[in-house]
């Protein structure tokens, strides 16, 4: 009889390996990687238990038990992993819970391999020949019950998740969920029967339940493409969206996110599902506001939209890359205040900045002497060159001022907080520098300079204009200044 049972288990393990290989080809689909590894673990368990039943001496049996637990030890973590990936549930099966279960599984493998030293997993072990062939008889140790508790915790969680899928879906998706539910339920029933002693002697019923599971999965692949566990309208579309999407529950834990979101936060740290949002300060600050906003991250700009889930169930945060739009808007704003030729401010912006003055200071108005002769003698391209040379010279000497092309060959400078005496000296230095510059088109500049009246733009500009023309009438290439205006 043991030969028949062993043959059944070996064949079952081969089928599970084939199903695992098929699943591995679909490993990119949510949940499939976990169930594929679970099939491989079951295959190890089935094959090794089949070899154990064929063994006639205690030493060989124990060696095969140690092989069995290469798969059995990790049932809890693989079942838990599959269920949370399938349902996309991270709040309960978060990383901390997964870590604890994985630690239990790892400890189980270690304790089984070293059981002869401590007896924590199997308190006593012997051989029973009462059913016609030798079979291992065990007395369970303390850690055995810990492993069983972890296994039932994972299986109950998986069954609850699958019941939710059955109740909340329709059509082929519901049939898939029901098939997976049944496949999970059968090993759980077999395990319960074994633990309660309802089987045939000490024969472990769990590996034999895998036969039924293999048939279910195989028929599911054929009829319902059971390995395609995720909804097209959910997982695939969710991960295809170019916008970054993250789902946060009402207590601030990350429930779900798409691939675009993970790529987005690559520069800030790896986002992890199940972790509190306050570990990522950017997201924490975003959630503090209930309004849409635009933020800068690195060299990118993102528009943030917050969508409430019901009244108190959490928030969906959507990141839309608006870098191109933002940069285009900035360029339009710059063009609106900038002179195209000289790249200085234009007159409109100069007036705006004048109206924003808070402290006393000076205003300067200057004009290129005999500029018309430059255009007539050398051409308009030469005139443009002279205008740009003047703009560069102004930027170098009045870096702390507001410089604009006031109109034609006229330029204006505002220097807030500057004294008239110091401004006159700087004006003279600028005039001399412009006259002596290296150029193919020599010319000079006349300058009018005075205090500005920050309460009256027109009065200020009329006054400085008069001083400019005094400089022109005095022979040009001069700075004329007067502190007659009140501040």
Structure description:
InterPro entries: Diguanylate_Cyclase, GGDEF_dom, HisKA_7TM, Nucleotide_cyclase, PAS, PAS-like_dom_sf, PAS_fold, Rev_trsase/Diguanyl_cyclase. Keywords: Membrane, Nucleotidyltransferase, Transferase, Transmembrane, Transmembrane helix. The chain is an alpha+beta fold and 487 residues long. The chain has 3 domains: 229 residues, Up-down Bundle (Rhopdopsin 7-helix transmembrane proteins); 83 residues, PAS domain (Beta-Lactamase, 2-Layer Sandwich), CATH 3.30.450; 145 residues, Reverse transcriptase/Diguanylate cyclase domain (Alpha-Beta Plaits, 2-Layer Sandwich), CATH 3.30.70. The chain is 56% helix and 16% strand. The strands form 3 sheets. Strands 4-3-7-6-5 form a 5-stranded antiparallel β-sheet. 35% of the residues are buried.
Quick recap:
The protein is α+β, with helices and mostly antiparallel strands.
Fraction of residues in β-strands: 15-25%
The level 1 CATH classification of the largest domain is Mainly Alpha
Mean pLDDT: 86
> How many structural domains can be distinguished in the coordinates?
3
Question: Can you list the strand order of the major beta sheet?
Answer: 4-3-7-6-5
Total helical segments: 18
Low-confidence parts: 229-233
Taking the sheet with the most strands, its summary is:
5 strands, antiparallel
| Strand tally | 12
Tell me the span between the first and last alpha carbons: 112 Å
Order of helices and strands: HHHHHHEEHHHHEEHHEEEHHEHHEEHEHE
CATH architecture of the largest domain: Up-down Bundle
**Any idea of the CATH topology of the largest domain?**
Rhopdopsin 7-helix transmembrane proteins
Cα radius of gyration in angstroms? 41 Å
**Shape designation:** rod-shaped
Indicate the percent of residues in helices: 55-70%
What structural class do you assign from the helix and strand content? Answer: alpha+beta
């Amino acid at each position: 009889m043991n030969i028949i049972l062993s043959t059944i288990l070996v064949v079952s393990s081969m089928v599970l390996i084939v199903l695992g290989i098929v699943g591995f080809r679909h490993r990119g689909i949510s949940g499939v990687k976990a169930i594929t590894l679970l099939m491989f673990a079951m295959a190890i368990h089935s094959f090794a238990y089949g070899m154990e039943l064929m063994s006639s001496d205690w030493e060989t049996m124990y060696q095969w038990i140690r092989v069995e637990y290469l798969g059995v030890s990790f049932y809890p973590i693989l079942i838990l992993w599959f269920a949370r990936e399938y349902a996309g549930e991270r709040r309960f099966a978060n990383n901390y819970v997964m870590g604890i279960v994985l630690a239990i599984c790892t400890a189980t493998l270690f304790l089984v391999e070293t059981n002869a030293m401590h007896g924590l997993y199997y308190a006593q072990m012997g051989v029973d020949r009462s059913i016609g062939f030798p079979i291992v008889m065990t007395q369970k140790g303390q850690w055995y019950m810990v492993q069983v508790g972890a296994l039932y915790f994972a299986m109950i969680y998986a069954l609850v998740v699958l019941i939710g899928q059955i109740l909340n879906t329709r059509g082929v998706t519901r049939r898939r969920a029901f098939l997976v539910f049944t496949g999970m339920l059968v090993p759980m029933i077999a395990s319960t029967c074994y633990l309660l002693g309802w089987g045939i002697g000490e024969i472990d019923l769990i590996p034999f339940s895998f036969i039924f599971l293999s048939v279910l999965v195989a028929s599911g692949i054929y009829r319902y493409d059971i390995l395609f566990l995720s909804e097209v309208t959910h997982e695939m579309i969710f991960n295809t969206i170019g916008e970054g999407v993250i789902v946060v529950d009402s207590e601030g834990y990350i429930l779900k996110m798409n691939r675009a979101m993970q790529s987005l936060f690559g520069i800030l740290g790896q986002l992890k599902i199940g972790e509190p949002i306050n570990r990522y300060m950017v997201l924490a600050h975003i959630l503090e506001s209930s309004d849409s906003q635009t933020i800068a991250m690195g060299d990118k700009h993102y528009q943030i939209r917050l969508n409430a889930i019901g009244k108190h169930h959490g928030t969906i945060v959507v990141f839309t890359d608006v870098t191109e739009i933002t940069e285009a808007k900035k360029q339009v704003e710059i063009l609106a205040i900038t002179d195209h030729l000289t790249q200085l401010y234009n007159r409109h912006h100069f007036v705006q900045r004048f109206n924003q003055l808070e402290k006393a200071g000076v205003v300067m108005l200057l004009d290129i002497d005999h500029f018309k002769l430059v255009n007539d003698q050398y051409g308009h391209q030469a005139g443009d060159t002279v205008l740009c040379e003047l703009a560069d010279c102004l930027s170098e000497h009045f870096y702390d001022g507001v410089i604009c092309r006031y109109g034609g060959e006229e330029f204006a400078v505002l220097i807030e907080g500057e004294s008239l005496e110091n401004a006159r000296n700087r004006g003279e230095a600028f005039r001399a520098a412009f006259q002596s510059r290296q150029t193919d088109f020599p010319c000079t500049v006349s300058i009018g300079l005075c205090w500005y009246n920050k309460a009256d733009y027109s009065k200020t500009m009329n006054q400085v204009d008069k001083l400019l023309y005094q400089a022109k009438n005095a022979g040009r290439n001069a700075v004329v200044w007067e502190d007659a205006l009140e501040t």
